[in-house]
Amino acid sequence: EVISAGCEPVAVFTLPKDSVSLRHSDYADLSWARGLNIPVHYVDNVNEYGDTLRNYEPDVIFCFGWSGMLLQETLEIPRLGCVGSHPAMLPRNRGRHPIIWAIALGMKETGLTFFRMTNRADDGPIVSQEKIPMATDETARGLYDKVKASDLMLMPPSTTIRSLAAERCKAIKRSREITGAYGQQVSDVIERVVAY
Questions:
Q1: pLDDT, tens digit, 9 for 90 and up, residues 176-193
Q2: Range name among 5-14, 57-66, 95-104, 184-193 with the lowest pLDDT average
Q3: Which residues pair with 131 in a beta bridge?
Q4: Rounded Cα gap, residues 157 and 86, in angstroms
Q5: Comparing C-alpha atoms, which of 29, 63, 5 is closest to residue 195?
Q6: Residues 21-45: b if buried by 16+ CB within 10 A, e if exposed
Q7: In angstroms, rounded to a whole number, what is the distance separating the alpha carbons of residues 45 and 161?
Q8: Is 57 left (phi over 0), alpha (psi -120 to 50) or beta?
């Protein structure tokens, strides 16, 4: 999807397969990227690979499904920043297990948020958001599947990159108010992507 959207993925950083069963039940093997001549790096801590990341000269880093925090020096590597995803309508349900908390709290809806990462957990300007309705008998697996199938998750990465380039992001307010969604297109952005 990244390639078909006109982006140039320059590398993939992912967890080593042998450590995955301890951390992620939904691990996806990304070794297929090698078939597209995209280097794949298996790392436990991406912060230890700053020089390698810098050598790729990424415009943006997409961070999906990674539970570790990025150091400030890592966040400063890409020209347009690092984009994180969180299965909630930030600023609500920041932190770990937002899907479980949405169910436990009896929420009527949750969502998916893409945001420009800072050195604080699930904090930073919102790039885009999508609300996801919840059933009264919602299960964690069912809700997770809804998040994965959301329009926002399927949105071309170039839309997110263009939003960053145009600085069409809104800061997350400290209150419980949701600040808005942005995904408007802006042309002529160089798109070199590192995904991890």
A1: 333 233 222 222 233 334
A2: 184-193
A3: 111
A4: 16
A5: 63
A6: eeeeeeeeebeebeeeebeebeeee
A7: 24
A8: left
**Predicted TM-score of the model (pTM):** 0.78
Which positions ≥6 away from 7 have C-beta within 8 Å?
Answer: 157, 158, 161, 191, 192, 193
Nearest to 26 by CA among 79, 84, 87, 70: 87
Q: Which two tokens stand for residue 85?
A: 């995803």
- Helix/strand/coil (H/E/C) assignment for every residue in the chain: CCCCCCCEEEEEEECCHHHHCCCCCCCCCCHHHHHHCCCEEECCCHHHHHHHHHHHCCCEEEECCCCCCCCHHHHCCCCCCEEEEECCCCCCCCCCCHHHHHHHCCCCEEEEEEEECCCCCCCCCEEEEEEEECCCCCCHHHHHHHHHCCHHHHCCHHHHHHHHHCCCCECCCCCCCCCCCCCCCCCCCCCEEEEC
Q: Which distant-in-sequence residues (6+ apart) come within 8 Å of 103 by Cβ?
A: 134, 138, 139, 140, 143
Instruction: Indicate the residue type of 189.
Output: V
